[in-house]
Design a protein that fits this description.
By secondary structure, this protein is mainly alpha-helical. The protein is 55% helix and 5% strand. It folds into 2 domains: 366 residues, no CATH class; 271 residues, no CATH class. It is built from 31 helices and 12 strands. Strand 6 and strand 7 form a beta hairpin.
Length: 862
């Protein structure tokens, strides 16, 4: 048949098109063939006429009628498929825009959106345009010809804004010598914020911020600048018109009236426009000066070098030239009286935009909810889809704007006080804050402070839609799309990282030595009240006999073993002496970091309640000049007791929770601190030169040999990689915090109810069952509140309270640790792993010792 078609110049595609469209001539007809064997093993065939109903005979006798029927069936099928596709496209069009504000049930559940008026203001806008309105420019945008100039200008302005923010933070942070913040000025800054005057809310302006939080706050303020430029300042605006075909695509009637676009509603003041004009005027001066430098002649290399010096090395100078105009711009945004039309303010319009998000809000782990170990691909960010932020998450964004506004007000007051003297600074702060940072006034930040008051109320009363869910046998916990088997996955994760840490410590860090005794917690003593700088359990006189010779143990091992000498030292022929091999030291330090990564996961999972990543980074081995160490020994058990770094607040106790580490895991880190840390200090001193050689390592446990501390992203990466190694569902620190709180309530609270007879102050017959249950429930609630960092506590300075609270916290933490380890049977499992690992190392040592003896007997050794 193929040869026949080719001979007549036809193609099989014509036959298929005829069947699909019904136009044209069929090249062949389907039929039934019967094959049979002929001579010489050949197969022949003939057509079989099938018996069928009358309509089949008619169809066979009239092929054109059969083609018409097939064509009608295909047209009907295509019509049905087209309807399905149209439904999908319609859903995507509806999801791509802010939904219509008309449902009464939605009005009752999302009342905070009704108060703010965001749905009506954003109605009909495309989600992708909302996100792109404040998206910060990237370096990749410089490669696009269309947006190259605009992206370059914005990047230059944002660099100056970043420099301004850093300078402002130096004025309030106690880490810089030029600090100008005083307690009285801090009270003035927060005297008119949300909740001021209420009991317990008279806290001063927060002068300390973690670096990650600081970066997020700076980013929010830079997004405000970008939004103002794209929507309120740039000609043509940003958002597309909601009329004609776009209105039809949105699924609405042509006669329905839409609110104006945001760029038509925003009414920037003359001062705001003049401030932005001043910024671009400075930019034009810089560009003009750069163009003149290029036209001044000289070789191409000289021009390039001059340009790099102007725009690269001279970046600080560019920032200094732009900072006054940027400062004035932000001050004009903050000092803006709005009136009844809130969204005429660029700041409040920006607040409406950031109330939308592309996906799950509030937890970073939710972006990885669909990522599993079965090689599933992470779902890409879809900017066409949008939902409203949760009230609590959105309140955090408003808090960032308020804090930045307070910071810039203080920076602006300090900048202008140089002209009028320091005496007018407090009066200037009172004037600005009282007029523009007051929730009773109709200013931009007055509206934001009012919204914060309402959002705080909603957050306290609302139940999060993302709740951990347990299986019917209470063994599997599902939260944010991640399912974790408590008694299988968690022990599997702990044991995997324990094996890894055990092998790294014994085989690499301790050089595989068999005669080194491990440091055990039950052998040591510690003074929890010792505050001497550099002090720890290693300097306690009661441990001197046990730790004698431990500090220089590994140094002696290097000089006793020729293989270690060859590894760490090389011959310097020029100086005729040995020198430290930097490559070997770097390889050793790499193994140290791998050990710390495994230990970080163990500390995050094995204690209960789990410490936050930000807290774990503050783990210290020795006393510093400002606070005590975090790793302590109490009742011969290793305890992680992390204190908040903002110690000036005398009422903070919610982060001050002890965690007890299992004995086998504690043995690893104690041996590491006693033996490996001194060797790292020796390596560091030998690699440094001059009088700048260090006398001690960083007091923080999670740091590099050069003193560089870990970042929060490092801990998240360690936990994710540990889950992959253990072949358990991948999760992150924030996910584990919420899951652990649910585990405490569901799995540990029944154990407390069964094992707390000592808490009963009355005999059972003297107390009603209902009353006893209420007391136990209250104790469980107190536990959960303490462990989820939300428990209010009395002032530590109150007479006698500190001792009672500390003792209660220690006993609660110990009881929780015992319950958690008993639930997982983790002590028994760790002991088995330790025994098996020790047996394997012993057998390997026997084989190494037996090898030379055997070769000596056969005469092949030596």
């Amino acid at each position: 048949m193929v040869a026949h078609i080719v001979t007549h110049g036809r193609r099989p595609l014509e036959h298929r098109r005829t069947l699909e469209c019904g136009s044209g001539q069929l090249l062949w007809q389907e039929c039934t063939l019967q094959t049979y064997s002929t001579s010489r093993n050949r197969i022949d065939y003939f057509v079989v006429a099938e018996e069928g109903p009358e309509e089949t005979e008619v169809a066979r006798s009239s092929p054109s009628r059969a083609v018409d029927r097939d064509r009608a069936d295909r047209e009907l099928l295509l019509l049905m498929l087209e309807n399905l596709e149209e439904v999908n496209r319609g859903l995507k069009r509806l999801a791509a825009r802010v939904e219509k504000y008309c449902h009464a049930d939605w009005y009752q559940t999302e009342t905070w959106l009704t108060i703010t008026g965001f749905p009506m203001y954003l109605q009909g806008l495309r989600n992708a345009e909302i996100y792109s309105s404040y998206r910060l420019p990237r370096m990749d945008d410089l490669k696009e010809e269309e947006d190259k100039e605009e992206a370059g200008d914005l990047l230059c302005i944002l660099s100056a804004a970043e420099s301004l923010f850093r300078d402002a933070y130096r004025l309030v942070s106690d880490e810089y010598p030029g600090r100008q913040m005083t307690p009285q000025r801090a009270r003035v800054l927060s005297g008119f914020t949300a909740g001021a005057g209420e009991k317990g809310n008279d806290a001063a302006f927060r002068c300390f911020m973690d670096e990650s939080t600081l970066v997020g706050y700076f980013r929010k303020m830079k997004e405000l600048l970008v939004y103002y430029y794209r929507v309120a300042y740039r000609e043509g605006g940003h958002f597309s018109q909601r009329s004609g075909p776009i209105r039809a695509a949105a699924g609405v009637d042509e006669d329905e009236e839409f609110p104006p676009l945001p760029e038509d509603i925003i009414r920037p003041t003359v001062e705001q426009r003049n401030a932005m004009d001043a910024i671009f005027a400075e930019l034009r001066k810089l560009k003009l000066g750069n163009a003149r430098n290029r036209e001044s002649g000289g070789s191409k290399k000289a021009q390039v070098a001059e340009e790099e010096e102007r725009w690269g090395l001279g970046e600080n100078e560019i920032d200094e030239m732009l900072k006054p105009a940027v400062r004035e711009f932000y001050m004009q945004l903050i000092c803006h009286t709005v009136g009844s039309q809130a969204f005429q303010s660029p700041v409040l319009s920006f607040c409406a935009m950031i109330s939308r998000t592309t996906g799950f809000a509030g937890d970073q782990s939710k972006t990885q909810a669909d990522k599993r170990l079965e090689s599933l691909v992470r779902v890409e960010r879809n900017e066409e889809v949008g939902i409203w932020h949760e009230a609590g998450v959105y309140n955090s964004s408003l808090s960032a704007l308020v804090w930045m506004a307070q910071l810039l007000i203080f920076e602006g007051a300090c900048y202008y006080k140089d002209e009028h003297g320091d005496q007018t600074l407090r009066a200037e702060l009172e004037t600005l804050c009282g007029q523009f940072m007051n929730c009773e006034h109709e200013t931009a930040f007055g509206f934001i402070l009012q919204w914060q008051l309402y959002l705080a109320t909603v957050r306290r009363s609302a139940i999060s839609p993302w709740q951990p869910r347990w299986s019917f046998d209470y063994q599997e916990l599902t939260y944010l799309g991640i399912t974790l088997h408590v008694t299988n996955h968690i022990p599997q994760l702990i044991l995997t990282e324990y094996r890894r840490a055990y092998d790294i410590l014994h085989d690499t860090l301790l050089f595989g030595a068999k005669d080194i005794k491990m440091i055990k917690a039950h052998q040591l003593y510690d003074d929890l009240d010792a505050e001497r700088f550099g002090g720890s359990w290693t300097t306690d006189p009661r441990n001197a006999k046990l730790l004698a010779g431990v500090r220089e143990m590994l140094v002696r091992k290097i000089w006793q073993r020729p293989d270690l000498q060859r590894r760490f030292f090389t011959d310097d022929e020029a100086k005729k002496k040995k020198q430290l091999d930097q490559k070997s030291v770097n390889a050793y330090e790499t193994k140290v970091q791998e050990f710390l990564e495994a230990f970080a996961t163990l500390v995050q999972i094995s204690p209960m309640p789990p410490p936050r990543a930000s807290e774990l980074l503050l783990t210290t081995c020795t006393n510093t000049r400002s606070q005590r160490r975090s790793l302590l020994l109490w009742d011969h058990k290793l305890m992680l007791h992390i204190r908040p770094n903002n110690s000036s607040e005398q009422t903070i106790w919610d982060d001050d929770i002890p965690r007890f580490i299992p004995a086998d895991i504690a043995e690893l880190i104690l041996t590491f601190i006693a033996m490996v840390q001194p060797l790292r200090l020796v390596f560091r001193r030998m690699t440094e030169s001059g009088a700048s050689r260090a006398t001690a390592l960083s007091p923080y446990l999670f740091s590099n040999m050069d003193g560089t501390e870990w970042q929060a992203e490092t801990l998240s990466r360690c936990l994710s990689q540990s889950c992959i190694r253990a072949k358990v569902p991948e999760f992150q620190d924030t996910w584990w915090q919420e899951a652990a709180a649910s585990i405490i309530v569901v799995k540990l609270a029944p154990r407390w109810r069964a094992g707390l007879p000592h808490l009963k102050t009355e005999a059972p017959e003297e107390k009603a069952p209902k009353e006893e249950a209420t007391e136990l429930e209250g104790q469980v609630v107190d536990q959960v509140q303490a462990y989820t960092h939300s428990s209010p506590t009395p002032d530590r300075l109150y007479a006698g309270t500190a001792t009672v609270e500390t003792d209660t916290a220690l006993h609660r933490a110990h009881r929780t640790s015992e319950s958690w380890r008993g639930l997982l049977n983790i002590d028994h499992l760790l002991a088995e792993v330790k025994i098996s690992r020790g047996r394997k190392r012993a057998q390997a040592g026997e084989r190494e010792e037996a090898g030379p003896v055997k070769r000596t007997r056969i005469g092949s050794f030596g």
